[in-house]
Write a structure and sequence with these properties.
The complex is a heterodimer of chains A (300) and B (224). Chain A is α+β, with helices and mostly antiparallel strands and 300 residues long. Helix content of chain A is 71%, strand content 8%. Chain A contains 11 helices and 4 strands, in the order ααβαβααβαβααααα. The chains are: A alpha+beta (300), B alpha/beta (224).
Amino acid sequence: MKFMYRSVQQALTNILRNKTVNFLCLGIISFTLLVPGIFNFISINLDRYISRLSENVEAIFYIRDGSDSAGIEKLMQRINGSLLVKETGFTSRDQARANFIREFPELEYILAEFNDSPFPASIDVKFRADARSIVPIESFIHDIEKDGMVESAQLNMDWARKIAMIKKFASFAGLFLSAILLIVSVFIIFNVVKINIFYRKEEITILRLVGATDWYIKTPFLLEGFILGSLGGLLAGGLLLLTIKVFPLYAGFVYNVVKQLIDFKQLPLRLFWELVITGSLIGLLSSFISLRRFIRHTPG
Amino acid sequence: MIQFFHVYKQYFRSNEALSDINLSIERGEFVFLTGASGAGKSTLLKLVYKEEEPTKGQILIDSVNSTLIPPGKLYKLRRQIGIVFQDFKLLMNRTVQENVAIPLLVRGEKRATVDKKVNSTLALVGLSHRKRYLTAHISGGEQQRVAIARAVIGNPKILIADEPTGNLDTELSIEIIRIFEKINASGITTIIATHDLNLINLFPKRIIKLDKGQLVLDRAPEAV
């Protein structure tokens, strides 16, 4: 406890001793964390939007003429049994005809030529919002299509594929950008700790010669990286909050376009803590690498 | 306490800093290590506290082969040895008491114990009145005494001083050696490297003389 107290005190002293370098470092870390933060904020909101849209992924199974109602009932039970399915509805041939007339009254005369409804009966399926991947949905549809009663199936594929593509792109771009910026952060903290090691070279030598353990010497440097990273994360969180509050005030037309997709009212708490934790871990990792590389070259 | 067996130290191929050194220093002894500049005095001391490794040979400190001590356990050896460096190695931006307290703080001693020991050690070297001064603001002689206080505060078994009087006038040098005598009287093995023969002649102690890396004289105190 006393050791930790002394280490924290030493780390804070180091940070305050090299104010310019450390505050510059803090600014750069918070900026490099802010960019992935903004991206993740957009990504989270996009995800929510996509989630809402995913509820509209629908499939229609057209039933062969002459299928008996018991068979259709059994098929509906089978479809309902899938975890992917949210709800199903049955549209008989007559209902399909009525729907057509309701939606296209001006074309009703065409149907007058037919004694029976020309439309097949169908089972309409709505998929669950959390069944986001299109792959199991497609596989499920192919499976149902094999049933003898199903003549064909139709899925709002194009829409669903677009959703999947947006998600894929968002994830990839987010990861790529975050990785680059996080490497930048690691590099910066690594160099700040390196500067501090060189700055305290004489003290490290003395500590070694009077019998300090390796951990006694290293812990303040590790904490220094940790503190810088955490503060950088906190600052990035604050800046992100500021950005999303200020953006609607100045973005004008752009805001009107993106407000459908992005909720500017709140910053998800999860994202805020993610920034702080990422910052701390980056700080710890960078100072660890720096210590491994440079402390052994200190005499003593 | 300290034993050297056929110890060699070579920094470069052509430059042998120490050559076939054999010596034994008993517990509680007071030894002057002398020789001209470049004779190998500092190298020999560095081998004792393991800042340098011998090229060949064995060094036993309190019956432990110091060459076999892994880097992670080196602190155990260093806590048995108090060192007064030629350049003092003090933190100039810290106060006198902060410098002196370092060996106790690295051992995790309680604040109250540290304060008590700092006060008594500063009294031993006659620096109680300078305790709160910044080290950069005191004289060279006082800095020397801060270095001595830091070396002895951890109650070491061995005290090593590398040219502790190098920058001091004769009067101050004698005063410093008297402090070392006082410390040695409490049972601490004391080794002082110096090239000041006048000073050596004033104190009848064992003398070990090095010349070009070789031990050329090992004279017992009674023979002086």
